[in-house]
């Protein structure tokens, strides 16, 4: 997937943010370092960004993934119960 982003500063921010997120996920960076990087980087844009909205979106997305996982698990359990005798 490619994005056409005319602003060079924003265009470089996106891949950098992806790298930092990967470092956080892999444990190469801790949450405090991530927060400092994000705060310092956002200051470069000199534009107020409502992190609360971003956090709300991330919580919504996490919940959606969780609910999808539960629904998928329920379908698998139902399939197994229909096909096999499950000991209780």
Descriptive notes:
By secondary structure, the chain is mainly α. It contains three helices and no strands. The chain has helices spanning 8-26, 31-45, 51-83. Helix 1 (8-26) runs antiparallel to helix 2 (31-45). It is elongated, with a radius of gyration of 20 Å. It starts with 7 loop residues before the first helix and ends in a 5-residue tail after the last helix. The mean pLDDT is 75.
Q: Could you tell me the mean pLDDT?
A: 75
Fraction of residues in H or I helices: over 70%
The protein's oligomeric status is single chain
What is the terminal separation in angstroms? Answer: 48 Å
In percent terms, what proportion of residues is strand? under 5%
- Following the backbone from N to C, one meets helices and strands in this order, namely HHH
Task: Tell the overall outline.
Answer: elongated
Topology:
Layout: H1 8-26, H2 31-45, H3 51-83
Summarize the structure.
Helices cover 76% and strands 0% of the residues. By secondary structure, the protein is mainly alpha-helical.
Brief descriptors of the model:
88 residues; mainly alpha; 3 helices
């Amino acid at each position: 997937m490619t994005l056409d982003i005319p602003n060079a500063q924003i265009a470089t921010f996106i891949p950098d943010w992806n790298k930092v997120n990967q470092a956080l996920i892999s444990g190469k960076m801790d949450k405090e370092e991530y927060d400092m990087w994000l705060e310092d980087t956002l200051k470069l844009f000199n534009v107020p960004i409502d992190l609360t909205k971003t956090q709300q979106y991330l919580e919504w997305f996490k919940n959606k993934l969780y609910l999808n996982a539960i629904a998928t698990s329920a379908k698998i359990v139902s399939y197994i119960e229909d096909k096999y005798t499950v000991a209780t």
